[in-house]
Specification:
Blueprint (H helix, E strand, L loop, with lengths): L6 H6 L3 E12 L2 E12 L3 E5 L6 H8 L7 E6 L5 E4 L11 H5 L4 H19 L3 H20 L5 H11 L16 H13 L5 E5 L7 H12 L5 E4 L3 H7 L2 E6 L2 E6 L2 H36 L5 H16 L28 E12 L3 E12 L3 E5 L6 H8 L7 E6 L5 E4 L12 H8 L5 H9 L17 H15 L3 E5 L7 H13 L3 E5 L3 H7 L2 E6 L2 E6 L2 H36 L19 H21 L3 H4 L2 H30 L1
Parallel strand pairs: 3-7, 3-8, 5-6, 6-7, 12-16, 12-17, 14-15, 15-16
Antiparallel strand pairs: 1-2, 1-4, 8-9, 10-11, 10-13, 17-18
């Protein structure tokens, strides 16, 4: 269908930068998009959601100009620069990390090469007339180089790579040496450094740890041009999105607000729709009964009239004739857990682990877990979360410390590693094999909790996608109902609907749960306490993820305020002392001596204060406004260097006092 601009659209087009109008896309016999329509305004951060295979990636490819709709049109504002991050980006494996990411500055690098070439000509050509022309050319190219950001692009590159978790030592490594996840992060860095005014991000957080995701949230929140983000990370969709567009059965349903607003709005809509379905069903049945009764009797004309009106209304779509299948409420009754709510199930004392007793992965891990508690574990990649789970499941022995189960418990373990499922066995047989006494109807009802319905349950395991196989594994494990579930990244490969189905099932599960996850929204729904791994240790706090982040932020703010007050008092004392001092030269002393009057506790607070300030400055490197202001960038870098120098001296003073 051609896209026509009428008076109403012309009014909206003043603000709309992208218009998707009645877009249809079909692959073979499968219709992926069927008349999808919505608009995007300047500055919108749109969360694009929907089941796996619903057409989200297809839509991004069309917006990026890599594919075309079969019917309908996509209109973009003139001059809009669109950049795409694909799930499997193209990477030159022979380039170094630095050079691959620096491709974003191709135009600037070309100007830099021109400057080098002109400089070489100037040094090799002594002719005065020729020299004057070369100098004029050099000035012209140099001016263009500066105007294009030639003096700041390296600083921007360092900030983006640092924010996404890369260190300087990795800059000169060939891309072929990096993992698939690291290559995706490099591609994201390259995209963020381009001059794209509108970003298309297809699962950008798949290979990011929580620190990198928080950095990306900060960056997107201040990106002025807008973006479409395809993501299963509902926490990110909550923090950055101004609009949610759901692709459902080929249609695009647009909701103003973030993910939580969308979820509550949709729940109300589904409830209203369900009520209307029941009301319309009764009306249609009543009308049909009247028509059938009187079509051949004395009231034939009235019956024919009613039939005509009913058919017309049915054809016009006035009635809700189908119940929404996404509202699944089937539940399986779990037996009560054998662990006691008030008893300790697991005790860990000073756990430490080091590979070859050389590189310590973590140390000092101490906590107790009570029956029916739900412990969420999160932290940066590589900090030892999976290793801890392998210790708890007796696959590894800790280097130091001890771990013991205080009660006899059965353990169910879901790992990230490869697994084997019989490819010829159908899903229903797999599930009933776990619990032989389970009838077919009960098994099918249970699998409905994991979004398998109808003929899905008869699919051979070998035909299932990775996400579907993960759901079957989780369903099998939970159905066994161990006393303790240990889950390592259970939401990987699951779309949002599948994650919400898993959350509902785990909320019904009566036993104890330990779960490692980067999915903050999932942790908010499941966890009752958190073990948060940090570079300098760990936090063991009561509450879900958001509760614990609030506690940590409050603690940092309190320490910062106390340190500021202590620093202010020290300044006043120093001023008084200075007024009484003589003009005698002061002998050179060690730098840390200025903190000798402080206690170990005060020094520790000052160390934490400086660490907080440094972390806050590092976060500012993700601000779009900083990128555009070289003076502000230099100011932040100078302040950061000063803080790091102070931290070094204070840390030295703390070590001296702690060792004395």
């Amino acid at each position: 269908m051609p896209f026509s601009i009428d008076v109403n659209f012309a009014y909206h087009a003043v603000m709309a930068i992208i218009a998707i109008n009645h877009v249809t896309r079909q692959f073979g016999t499968q219709v992926v998009l069927d008349g999808a329509s919505f608009e995007i305004e300047t500055g919108d951060i749109v969360g694009l959601i929907g089941a796996n295979g619903s057409g989200k990636t297809t839509l991004l490819r069309m917006l990026a100009g890599l594919d075309k709709p079969d019917t309908g049109e996509i209109i973009q504002a003139k001059g809009l620069r669109v950049g795409l991050l694909a799930q499997e980006p193209v990477i030159d494996l022979k380039r170094t990390l630095h050079d691959e990411v620096a491709v974003a500055f191709e135009a600037i690098l070309a100007l830099e090469q021109q400057l080098h070439a002109i400089s070489d000509d100037m040094s090799n050509d002594p002719d005065e007339a020729r020299m004057a022309a070369l100098m004029k050319s050099y000035d012209k190219v140099h001016h263009k180089f500066i105007a294009s950001g030639g003096e700041t692009f390296e600083a921007k590159l360092h900030e983006i790579l640092g924010g996404l978790g890369f260190c300087l030592a990795e800059y000169n490594r060939p891309m072929g040496e990096f993992s698939g996840g690291q290559r995706c992060r490099a591609a994201l860095a390259r995209l963020l450094l381009t001059d794209s005014s509108f970003l298309l991000l297809d699962e950008p957080t798949n290979h990011l740890d929580i620190d990198a995701v928080r950095w990306l949230e900060n960056y997107l929140g201040k990106h002025p041009g807008g973006a479409i983000v395809v993501s299963h990370d509902r926490y990110l969709l909550d923090r950055v999105c101004t609009r949610i567009v759901e692709i459902d059965r080929g249609k695009a349903n647009s909701y103003t607000g973030n993910y939580s607003t969308y979820a509550s709005t949709k729940e109300l809509r589904l409830l209203t729709q369900a009520r209307q379905f029941e009301k319309d069903k009764k009306f249609i049945e009543k009308e049909q009964a009247f028509i059938n009764k009187h079509l051949s009797g004395q009231r034939t004309k009235e019956a024919q009239g009613r039939r005509t009106r009913l058919n017309r209304r049915l054809g016009g779509g006035e009635f809700v004739t189908e119940k929404d299948k996404s509202n699944r409420t089937a539940r399986i009754a779990f037996r009560n857990s054998s662990t006691h709510d008030d008893g300790v199930v697991l005790r860990c004392d000073d756990l430490a682990f080091a590979y070859d007793k050389a590189e310590t992965l973590f140390s000092g891990i101490t906590f107790q877990l009570y029956g029916s508690e739900r412990l969420g574990i999160t932290g940066a990649n590589g900090c030892g979360k999976t290793t801890l789970l392998r210790i708890l499941t007796s696959q590894l022995t800790p280097t130091e410390g001890s771990m013991s189960f205080e009660q006899r418990v059965s353990i169910g373990y879901f790992s990230q590693e490869s697994f084997h499922l019989d490819p010829d066995k159908c899903m229903l047989d797999e599930i009933r094999g776990v619990k032989p006494g389970l009838g077919e109807e009960a098994a099918r009802s249970y699998m409905g909790q994991f979004l398998f319905t109808g003929e899905d349950v008869f699919k051979p395991m070998g035909l299932l996608s990775g996400g579907e196989q993960s759901r079957v594994r989780l369903a099998s494990l939970i159905l066994e109902q161990p006393d303790l579930l240990i889950l390592d990244e259970p939401t990987n490969h699951l779309d949002i609907a599948s994650r919400e189905a898993l959350e509902q099932t785990l909320q019904d599960f009566p036993g104890t749960i330990i779960v490692v996850s980067h999915d903050r929204y999932f942790l908010d729904q499941i966890a009752s306490r958190m073990l948060i791994f940090r570079v300098d240790g760990y936090e063991n706090l009561v509450g879900n993820y958001s509760d614990c982040v609030a506690q940590i932020d409050a603690k940092k703010a309190k320490i910062a305020a106390q340190a500021k007050a202590a620093s202010s008092g020290k300044g006043k004392a120093s001023s008084k002392k200075d007024r009484k001092s003589t003009a005698k030269p002061v002998p050179e002393v060690r730098l840390s001596a200025q903190y000798d009057h402080l206690s170990v506790e005060q020094l520790e607070k000052m160390v934490m204060e400086k660490e907080v300030a440094i972390a806050q400055l590092n976060e500012r490197f993700g601000d779009a406004e900083v990128h555009k202001n070289p003076d502000l960038l230099a100011e932040i870098q100078e302040e950061l260097a000063a803080l790091e120098a102070e931290l070094t001296v204070i840390d030295q003073a703390w070590q001296e006092r702690a060792d004395s």
